[in-house]
Amino acid sequence: MSVQSEAQLENELIAQLNTLGYANVTIKDEAALLSNLKKQIELANGLYPLSENEWKQVISFLNTGSVFERAKNLRDQFPIKFDDGSSKHIYFLSEDSTKNHYQVTNQITVAHRDFNGRTSRFDVTLLVNGLPLVQIELKKRGMEIAEAFNQTQRYTREAYWAGQGLFSFIQLFIISNGANTRYYSNGTKHIDFAFPWAEVDNKHINEITDFAAAFLNPQHLTAMLTQYMVIHESSKDLMVLRPYQIYAVQKIVAQVQQSKNNGYIWHTTGSGKTLTSFKASQIIMKMPDVEKVLFVVDRNDLDTQTAKEFNAFKAESVDSTDNTRTLVNQLDQRHDKLIVTTLQKLNRAISSDHYLEYISYLKDKKVVFIFDECHRSQFGDTHQNIKKFFENAQMFGFTGTPIFEENSQSKAGLKLTTDYLFNDCLHKYVIVDAIRDRNVLQFQIDYRGKYTRKGMDANDQSDEDVESIDTQELYNNPERLEMITRYIVDTHDTKTKDREFTAMFCVSSVDTLTQYYELFEKVQSEKKIADEQAGRIFKPLTIATIFSYSANEAVEPDNLNGLIDEEAADIPAQINQSSRDKLDRYIANYNAQFGTNFNSADRFYAYYRDIADKVKKRQVDILLVVNMFLTGFDSKPLNTLYVDKNLKYHGLIQAFSRTNRVFNDKKPFGNIICFRNLKRATDEALALFSNKEAKKVVLVPAYEEIKQDYENAVEKLLALTPDYQSVDDLHTEDQQLEFIKAFREVMRFNAQLQSFVEYDQDQTKLNKQDFANFASKYSDLCREIRKTTKKEKTSVLDDVDFQLDLLHSDRINVGYILTLLQMAVDADSEEKRKKYEAQIHDLIGGDISLHNKQDLIQKFIEENMPKMINGQSVQEVFSAFWDVERENAYQRLCSEENLKPEAMKTVLDNYEFTKRLPRQEELKDLPNFKVGIFKRESVFNDLLNKTRQFIEKFYVGL
């Protein structure tokens, strides 16, 4: 039986779209597209044929701005001034699908914008009122869907902006190979953000025919385009909601329309609850019977992330101050329907008679509350106060970890569960779903430090025996704490990919935290001396901490329900002076490190916010905490959590989830290093918040298991190609395809193993040099296939997504380029030399990390390579060349910017010592002139940019 071709897949899809209500239209080029657009706009708006002058107004309005600006124009109305002097507002996209006209066409040909004679043809285009709003790219069954994604990326660069740029109106892309189908918004840069459509129970709809029926019918597609996309003002990007987010919004909206009941959304931590809640708020606020929509967060979360996100969606919807009067003024503004506030400020507003005259009108109005992270702060008096004041309130909560009977508290004989407070669970999307969809990462858990009773062999001791050794005397033993500190200092770079990522360390109490902080100082001081004596460069870890210094701090509370006792980022009413004194010292260290001026008194909350910001910017290596930041804090570059604290249920999942935000290819999972045996607690938490089999999905296999998979993959590779030179003997495309897939598996498992301290690639059957040699062959083959693809040669290798990011992420830098140059110099044939040179040109032109060095590397190749003497090392010649170029650029920078050379040298020496880019305050001594007070900000901003550019060009990535 023959395999369905791409053309057959395309024709069958078009036939299906016809049955869904799309009219066929033949459009082969831009002229036909423009002609059809004019007719469709006239038809949709009930216009007579527009004159040339009238049409020019419309096309001039449409052909303006970026993808982002055109998306806004699409949803706007445009006033046409007719030749007779009258005018009318016309629309381009209606929220009512019956007022739009839907067409389908295929194989539109567009000349490239660079006028090089090349053209691109697009598979299937969906037109709404004549505008190309959805582009579908297909690949035949058996091909990898990533190739369709890559094709849309190429078209974005080369073709969509050609001519009038009408293809820049694309809002959604659909890619499919028949068996797998994904959608994503225009501007998406990585295939990880291409989503499958799903049913309400999160079951994927992959087959193209099923996807088309569910997603591409005009009613649903119109809702996707008008309701479930976000025009993100701060980043100037388009965003589209994922299926579970849309179902949650729909469920909340339906509950508001049809019922007075409350409800909650169970969406796992890291699944984008803020975007979901914003969309729900945006739709609900348009309902005429809803007076206000209040999005309520805990104060600790507002300034760090929610405020920025909500203000990006709706300008000035958030007031981040502590001033309750500001909230009252917002509530008093009858036209302002969406308000974002904190639970604490809302409680003060409704509990004070002083504000009653301004907000009493809301008591019997329909007010919809949406609570972020409703597993927290909802079981106290505040929740009841809100219910008493707002008599017609409807409440909705979002949580990643609901409170069930197993992890609930009792009050007056009642089990205070999430169901009890919010009635119905309207939609579920648990951690197993999110990991399957690659919306969050798995966890890789190391349990370090197994304790055995004296006289008992460790192999004979059960987990139960180990867990029963649970005493403060053991845990607080100074020898144990120092051992853990040394382990972290020694292995931190491995866990965080040489500090590309950051970490948190959660401990049991403030007393333990202070011991650890001082141990980090001691251990790093000793390491600095040892490194300097051995001639090694010492790179200190930046340790920061924040904690509450309230009196009567719990030592190690055994919270049966697993809820983490939230530490307020406020000054406590009653303080523990000893803890406060120590915190003041730690804040002083922080101020010295970063040039700030925080304290534990009036600037404590500002310190809280700043430390959150610096963790996100990777300026803090390890954040040492008790409870703060373990819930509600999101930082994508944070990949590691050290744990010396008893966690269970809700608290365990919340704490672990700080590490599992998707970031880039170097972050395959979240690292959890437990210095206590939390295995049983982890299994119980996963069973409670997902299902009994969750750990098979949520947890990365053990090191030994991945290592075995890696070795099996290496054996398969070596059976096919015993050494890298034998790759040249793979003459057929089928053989080459087999090699590509085999080596790709080796790369995948090798990338996973890189985060394990135990892993030493040189002790495997494929050492680092062998791996590099195979990688070069893999890259060569990739380049060859890309070249033949451009010539439109049909090849089985067109079906392959080469996933070069797996190589680039760890190895593509100047050192790698020099290795290839040396191989070119040492090549035993002209053909091989040209191959290596071509690969080098591809890499320096295509890898973003080399863009700022591209001109110098090219200069070295052109000017120095031909002069090289036999036996000379490329590394030696390049080093001398680089030193000269760097010195010339250094002198030029100092001269052009009128800087003090000795001060600049100090800045550069500091970078070489710390490997941290300079901050603005560190450049105050650079100018060789007096900087006026009104020009200071702009001068130092410019100087900071130029200094960092110089460092990144001449020091980073060598």
From TrEMBL:
The type I restriction/modification system is composed of three polypeptides R, M and S. Its EC number is 3.1.21.3. GO terms for biological process: DNA restriction-modification system. It catalyses: Endonucleolytic cleavage of DNA to give random double-stranded fragments with terminal 5'-phosphates, ATP is simultaneously hydrolyzed. Residues 254-420 form the Helicase ATP-binding domain. The keyword Nuclease applies. Keywords: ATP-binding, DNA-binding, Endonuclease, Hydrolase, Nuclease, Nucleotide-binding, Restriction system. The keyword Hydrolase applies. InterPro entries: Helicase_ATP-bd, HsdR_RecA-like_helicase_dom_2, P-loop_NTPase, Restrct_endonuc_type1_HsdR_N, Restrct_endonuc_typeI_HsdR, SWI2_SNF2, Type-I_R_enzyme_R_subunit, TypeI_RM_Rsu_C. PROSITE patterns: HELICASE_ATP_BIND_1. Subunit R is required for both nuclease and ATPase activities, but not for modification. GO terms for molecular function: ATP binding; DNA binding; type I site-specific deoxyribonuclease activity. Belongs to the HsdR family. Pfam families: EcoR124_C, HSDR_N, SWI2_SNF2, T1R_D3-like. This is Type I restriction enzyme endonuclease subunit. Transmembrane segments: none annotated.
